[in-house]
Amino acid sequence: MRTVGSAVLVLEWIVVGLALIVANNVSGVPGQVVLTVLAIMTVLMLAAMMTLPERAGVALGWTVQVLMLAMALWVPLMAVLGVLFLGLWYLAVRLGRQVDDAKKARANIDLTDGEQVQPAHRSDD
To answer: Would you tell me which of 5, 26, 57, 80 could form a disulfide with 51, CB atoms 3.0–4.6 Å apart?
Structure first.
């Protein structure tokens, strides 16, 4: 979950940065507000990435998704992108947990199997 979730958040950070430039130029949002929002979103996204797959990381990721949707007040197209990233985040959380569970199950099978696979021995004869 950590890899997929982090990838979603990194892509989202790029979109947020570009959308804030548009918000500044088109919607007239002051530059100081743009920088403040970008800083807050950056801190939230980094904190989420560092704490994934824990509950705190997932909760921070959901918070980022809500803020992304709220940016549609400045840039209406962000509603579409917000819904897109909301779906990607949902898939990252849901499928990421399934992958993590499958990895744990496989690790448990390998540990309880008792057989260790030896690397093939190559003869130099």
So the answer is: 57
